[in-house]
Amino acid sequence: MLRRALLLGLAALATLPVGACDDEADAQAQWYDPQALLDALRPPDRRRAVAYGQAHGGLDALPFYEMDIGLADDQSEFEMTETVWYTNTTGGPLDEVVLRIYANAVGEQPRVELRGSECLGAACRVDFDGRSAITFRLAEPLAAGAHLRMRLELGGELQAIDPARTGMLAQAMEGAQRMGAGGAMHGEYGLLAQSGGTASLGNFYAQVAERRDGAWVRTDDSTMGDLGGGGLAHFKARLRCARGSRVAMSGAVVREQTHLGQGDEDPGHHEVVGTLPLARNFAIVVSPTFRAVTREVNGVTVRSWYQPRDQADGEAVLAYAVGALEVFERRFGRYPYADLDLVQAPLVGGAGGVEFSGLVTIAQMFYGSGGGSGMGVLAGLMRGAGTGNMRSSMLEFVVAHEVAHQWWHGLVGSDARQHPFVDESLAQFSAIQYMRDRYGNERAEQEAARQVAANYHFMRMQGITDGRVDRPVAAFANEMAYAGLVYGKGAFVYDAVREEVGDRRFFAGMNDYVEQHRFRTAPSRALFDRLARGDQRAAVRRLERRWLEETHGDEDLGRPDMSALMGQWMGADAVQGLGGMLEQLMQGLGQGLNGGGNLPPPPTAPPGSPAQGGGQADPEAAQALEDAVRLLRNLGN
Question: CATH second-level architecture of 407-557?
Answer without folding.
Answer: Orthogonal Bundle (1.10)
